[in-house]
Amino acid sequence: MSKRRQSSLFKTDKRIRLGLWGLGRGMSFYKMCAALNLDVVAGCDYNEHMRVRFAEANPGAFVTDDAEAFLNADFDAVLLATFCPAHAGDAIACLEAGKHVLSEVTSFHTMAEGVRLVEAVEKAGLVYNLAENYPFSAPHMYLAQKWREGLFGDLMYAEGEYVHDVRSLAFTYIDGVPIVPGYTLHNWRSWLHFHYYCTHSLGPIMTITGTRPTRVVSLPGKHTLPGNPMPKVQGLAGIAPSLITMDNGAVVRNLMGATTNDVHTFRYWGTRGAAEATDRLFLRLGGTGESPKLEVKADWGELTALAEKAGHGGGDFWVLYYFARQLLEGTPAPFDIYSAADVTIPGILAYRSSVNGGQPYDVPDFRKKKERDCYRNDHDAQHRFNPNTVCFPKGADKAQVGRFNSLMTDLLRYTAQYRAYTDWMRVADDVIDPKRLGDLADTVIQNHAAMRVALREAQTLAKTYPKGEGARLLHEMLETADADRVLKPGFIARIKKDRSRF
Ligand SMILES: NC(=O)c1ccc[n+]([C@@H]2O[C@H](COP(=O)([O-])OP(=O)(O)OC[C@H]3O[C@@H](n4cnc5c(N)ncnc54)[C@H](O)[C@@H]3O)[C@@H](O)[C@H]2O)c1
Predict the structure, then answer these.
(1) Residue of 20, 23, 25, 388 with the most ligand 1 atoms within 8 Å of its CB, for mutation
(2) Is any ligand 1 atom within 6 A of the Cβ of residue 387?
């Protein structure tokens, strides 16, 4: 690690030379690095669009699309933000290159990969942290402190939620730019079942209550939202609930999904008190069901100003802070490789449970070699398709089908605007503040010409290539957007007439 004097949150002026592997999400940490003794000296991404953005922000850094060249470069640690199902293999490559690792969620995709990763960390003797950030919002950190002090007693039951409609990310990069070539879907967001993305909802419950999962069960949900490339197994556009037993005997409902009501609500019931956290925090204290329920304020003390500037309710700041602190001062971070395994495995096994008729599975403790041995050859994983070829036939006109991702992005946006207006109009007389309905109508009126163009293009593309996932997705969007109605003459005149009511 190099030495360079800068103002620092730590007692040392040692600096850590950091490389970012995966420059989409990886770049969200960039601005916080300097204050945490981290110098970003290298970046790696296949994608030119991401490399250009990184090089502009960091002109002195080494940037490459070649992972081997990146890992051979001279620096101390990697912030790993490559494709989600590739994290285990990529983390092992980092460790073998002698780099400490801060890995984005999740830690691994199969049980066998988990075993390999745990043992690679043990063998390397380097620091491995998981960048699970949701436990570190101000309300969650406040709750963790009070839980440790015994305010809530024993955990009886909790509910954690990460319900986030991320459908458009099957067709775009993380910054909303449509994926190129436009007929290829996102590497993993086009097919991964939401059970595999289980850490943002389970992580806070583990961290706050100090418990670890021991058994998991899940029943499958059948329905998905339109515009989901992987409908038969739901992908990231379905619902993924599971029930988990924790090691103190409590039960947790872990809910992930992309559906029609984004929520990140956490509810805790202890034997002495209860709590409900969103971006606000309510406690019910007194030990009975009708005890007083009051809101409390929570912040991060002297680090509030810095944490507030970071993404995900301050959580991004804390995972980077804990990683730097462990490297500089040796204090263990909350998510080492073992708690990373604890928070990752329930998703893998919940998926397994949901496709096996709700069979429950014990969650092994990967701290113990004996328990790891049972999963050493467990390569079972969700079926995935090839996102590069699934939408259109091989011989399709590349220029025409190359418009697909932009078109799907537009269709998702315009359809959402149209549906919001149309569905709210069905209950317009019951709305307490109807002014908002006028705004919804204005949005449809403003975008109507562009929506017509998108709908017509979708009709043509689906007709030209009627077989395959591309046509199916386009038809779903055309149906959800009531294309026949929207394309009829007189449609917009009727909305303008309705608009005058508000
Ligand atoms: N904690 C959070 O709040 C949060 C938020 C967003 C994303 N994430 C996680 O961060 C990770 C990255 O997510 P993202 O949103 O940037 O999406 P992404 O999966 O599209 O980004 C991965 C990036 O890494 C690059 N890449 C992948 N493998 C590579 C390789 N071997 N060599 C060079 N480049 C490679 C890709 O080109 C891409 O730009 C994901 O695992 C995701 O789960 C976490």
Answers:
(1) 25
(2) no
**CA-174 nearest atom, ligand 1:** 15
Q: Residue 500 Cα, ligand 1 centroid: separation in angstroms? A: 46
Ligand 1 atom closest to 65 (CA): 33
57 lines ligand 1 (CB under 6 A): no
Q: Tell me the pLDDT of the chain averaged across its residues.
A: 94
Is the CB–ligand 1 distance for residue 45 below 6 Å? yes
**Model confidence pLDDT, tens digit, residues 21-38:** 999 998 888 888 988 999
Within 64-110, where are the H helices?
A: 67-72, 87-96
Q: Is 303 in the pocket of ligand 1 (CB under 6 A)?
A: no
Give tens-digit pLDDT for 63-92: 999 999 999 999 999 999 999 999 999 999
**What CATH class is the domain 16-130?**
alpha beta
Domains of the chain, by residue range, sit at: 16-130, 134-302+333-373, 398-499
Strands (E), 291-447: 293-296, 361-362
The DSSP output letter for 157 is: E
DSSP letter string over 341-355?
A: HHHHHHHHHHHHHHH
* Regions in the chain scoring below 70 on pLDDT: 1-7, 231-235, 312-313
State the pTM of this model. Answer: 0.95
CA distances from 166 to 85, 170, 185, 310 (A): 17, 8, 14, 21
| Burial of 153 per CB tally in 10 Å (0-12, 13-18, 19+) | middle
Q: CATH code for 134-302+333-373?
A: 3.30.360.10
Could you tell me if the CB of 355 is within 6 A of ligand 1? no
Q: What's the start-to-end Cα distance of the chain, in Å?
A: 63
